[in-house]
Amino acid sequence: MIRGLYIAAKDLKAEFRTKQMLNSMAIFSLLVIVIFSISFGDLLSDSKIITQLAPGVLWISFAFAGMLGLSRSFASELENGCLEGLKVCPVDRSAIYTGKMISNTILMFVVELITVPLFAVLFNYSIRGVVGLALIIMLGTVGFISVGTLLSALTVNTRTRELLLPLLLFPVIIPVIIPAVMATAKVLSGGGIGDVFGEMRLLFVYDVVFFMIAQLVFEYAIQD
Amino acid sequence: MDDIISIKGLAKAFGSHRVLKNIDLTIKRGEFVTIFGPNGAGKTTLLKIMSTLVAPSGGSVMVDGFDVTKKPVEIRSLIGVISHETYLYSDLTAEENLRFFGQMYGMDKEKLAARIDELLQEVGLEYRSNDRVGTFSRGMKQRLSIARAVIHEPSILFLDEPYTGLDQHAASTFEKVLQGLDAKNTTKVMISHNIERSLKMCDRVLILAGGSIVFDELRHDIGSAEDFKERYEFFVHE
Predict the structure, then answer these.
(1) Mutation test of the interface with chain B: which of A21, A88, A94, choosing the one with the most B Cβ atoms within 10 A?
(2) How many domains does chain A have?
(3) Residues in A touching B52 (Cβ below 8 Å)
(4) What is the pTM of this model?
(5) pLDDT of res. A42
(6) What number is the ipTM of this complex?
(7) Cα(A128)–Cα(A148) distance, integer angstroms
(8) Which part of chain B has CATH 3.40.50.300?
């Protein structure tokens, strides 16, 4: 576990120094929010319609921004053969997965922290239930990144990884996106944590199950 | 000297393509072995099997008493790998790179700090310790790569075409640094295409061709590099 934390710290140090991935993820996410807010135009004044549409927009922006980050996550390890360098270290393969997952999750949280306030402004939301929304975003993000990190490793050596990663990832994360959007809609329309308990439980189970599966199969994902 | 690497009947195939065929090889502790061979002969595959990166299809490979298929983690803590790729992170500084790899080998914080200082001095990069590796020349990266590979004081060093991309001066500096780190009598197995340079350093020479070892002699029995080149051509084209 400690080595996983070292890997995450290394990734975050390099990323916060260059901000290559963070900038593109944040800008992409913000652009999605801005484009949707412009294209909805007059509908933004109808609170009933916007409550139905906005949670989906929010999760679309998270999912696509996350995809950008995930596709770069292991690709950066290919530079100078660093992934091979990691593989010859006496480190359990699951530690590499854990480290990458932690760093990807933290980057996603940063992007979400930037996106949500802009979303609230452009979609005329006074965000109530901040704790509930934060919990849903956290659970949804962990599930998304758990699977995404595994698939990012699996596709990193393919020539069409930018195409292959979303094709493989989106069908698998549907069980995360649907309850996350539903729960977000409930919270944004004034619901409390009790109202979204079912969705949160589903997200939690998904997170645990996929984290465990990824830990077990990651060794095969990065095998030569 | 006891055998530190013992290979018996090693075979490796990728699909129907047989890369290594029934290889038997023993390497003594402290020996410096260079493996020559044409492209596609299976040299890198052999090195990757010994360094636990690739699983063999058949036969057995023991490294310091550990089987590569059963105890890979134990073997990884005993070996260091220097490749034509540096395994260094361009966005981290020289010191951060060494610290990260030291942490991966589970080194104690204080011992690691002292070892980083010592190695940066040995490879002549202490004045660039806080600079990003991305700003280094190829030769400097390769010297830092030696420091990375020996940070945990490995018993065995695998070198996979380390001269690739180095000019004459950088290659000489690389050799000096490598020889300077030899106090602990580390076993070295090197793959190279550079006959002149590699022959100067090693104790024993192998030629791998068509997935088999076709030549195995001690360095002092070989003669000059020119003599060896003729024999190399003969064995490779046989």
Answers:
(1) A88
(2) 1
(3) 88
(4) 0.89
(5) 74
(6) 0.87
(7) 30
(8) 77-184
